[in-house]
Structures are given as structure tokens and as C-alpha cells.
Amino acid sequence: MKNLILQHWNGTLPPWAIKCKESIQGYAETIGADYKLLSGYPFVKPPSKFEIKPWTVIQKIHIIHESYDDYENVLMLDMDMLATKHVDDIFKYEGIGRLHKKSMSGLNNSRSRLWPALYVKGKPAFFGNCVKLNRYERIQMRSVCDLDEILAASNGDTPPNDEIIMHHLMCKSNVLDNKDVLELPHDRFCDLVEEAHPKATLLHFCGPRKNSIR
Fold first, then answer.
1. Phi then psi for 114, rounded to 5 degrees?
2. CA dist., res. 121 & res. 148, Å (int)
3. CA nearest 80: which of 16, 143, 155?
4. Contact 99, 124 (CB under 8 A)
5. CA neighbor of 7 nearest in space, from 77, 96, 91
6. According to the model, what pLDDT value does residue 121 have?
7. CA torsion, points 148, 50, 128, 123, in degrees to nearest 10?
8. Are 202 and 81 in contact (CB under 8 A)?
9. Which of 195, 201, 177 lies closest to 77, judged by CA?
């Protein structure tokens, strides 16, 4: 069984991102997975009116691309995910990531407010920093992916982010309707550094937490 870990960054990697990349690349090697760092606009180049940032989250939807169909599982990680010395193989576990339950509730969340055309209340929605999809899930999501539909759902100068697009494709394809386990052990693989298990394998250094990476 072949597995792949992906990350994405646009432009020159800052020092903290180099540290994260090296740690994730080493982790992939340890567990026998392949690793690839994506750059540029592998999924779609957004219209010029949208602000383009180095992390351009919409590009992480490239996880569903047919070029990865030889892999049983593909894991997409944010650039600010860091592997620790506590190695546990994430591919041994069922589940996609960590459910974003506030977003799913429909109450006071940016997804339903900014991109209502892509949002379905109560349906699975995940944080975007750690997403693992198997081959079947990727193919089904790809089969319903309409770039024109996705970009048309933009709110002014705010294009849909990777989290709402993932949610939309999962809902549209019904790919998770018969999936029993949706969440990974998120305290071991998906959580912020201050929330995670003391022996977590992957840590999320979101926001200013990056400044503590040495």
C-alpha cells in the first residue's frame, strides 16, 4: 500500500517552514510514505482580483488530483505542521481529520456566512490543517468538482478556502454517507500545540505560534 504526504507553499520558505518541511519529510521517510512539496498553483490559479498569499489555501484541493491515484491514502498538511520525536503512523488510523463542529452547527461561522452556496448545515466539515483521504474518497470528490461553481461562490474579494471546498465536495458526492469513522485521533495528529497530547506525533503551530519554532 502506497501512501503520500503533501504540503503546499507559494514562494520562498521562511525559516520556520523549512524546519516544518524537514520534520514532515523525515516523518514520511520513517513511516515509509512518499513526500511532496507543492508550489505555485497546482489546483487552480485564482482570478487576479483575489489576494494571493504564500499559503493560498485553495491549492490544497490538489489532493484529489488524478496524478495521485496510485496512492491508497494521501495526507495534506499545512506548512505549519511539525513532526515530533513521538512517531506513530497516521496511515494506520481510520478517519479524515478533526471535525469542525462549530462550523457544522451553522451558528456564527464564517463558512456559512461567506460561502452559503457551498455550505450544508450539519454535514461533515473538517479543519484544513490535517486532511487524509483514501483513493475512493478522492476520486468521488473529483468527479463532482466544478471549478466554475466553486469560484462563482466567492464572496466579493474572498475566494472559498480549502475547508469550505472540501466540505462542498464531500456533501455533493455523498462520499462520507457510509463512512463509520470520520475523525483521526486528533490530539495525536491534528491539534494546536497547547491542546495536543504530550506525546503527539504532529503539532499545529497556527498563527504566532510559528515564532516558537526553532
1. -85, -35
2. 22
3. 16
4. yes
5. 77
6. 92
7. -50
8. yes
9. 201
- Grid cell at residue 127: 479543519
CA 175/CA 163 separation, integer angstroms: 16
Distance CA 79, CA 8 (A): 7
Question: Which cell goes with 207?
Answer: 498563527
Beta strands in the chain (DSSP E): 3-8, 34-38, 73-77, 81-83, 130-134, 202-204
The three cell numbers locating residue 61? 484541493
Phi-psi region of 196 (alpha: psi -120 to 50; beta: other; left: phi over 0): beta
3-state SS, residue 79: coil
Mapped onto helix, strand or coil, the DSSP state of residue 92 is helix
**How far is 165 from 61, CA to CA, in rounded Å?**
8
The string of DSSP letters for 153-184 reads: T-BTTB---HHHHHHHHHHHHTTTTT-S--B-
- Three-state SS at 187: helix
For the segment 120-165, what is each residue's pLDDT rounded down to a tens digit? Answer: 999 999 999 999 999 999 999 999 999 889 888 887 767 788 899 9
**Cα gap 147→72, rounded to integer Å:** 25
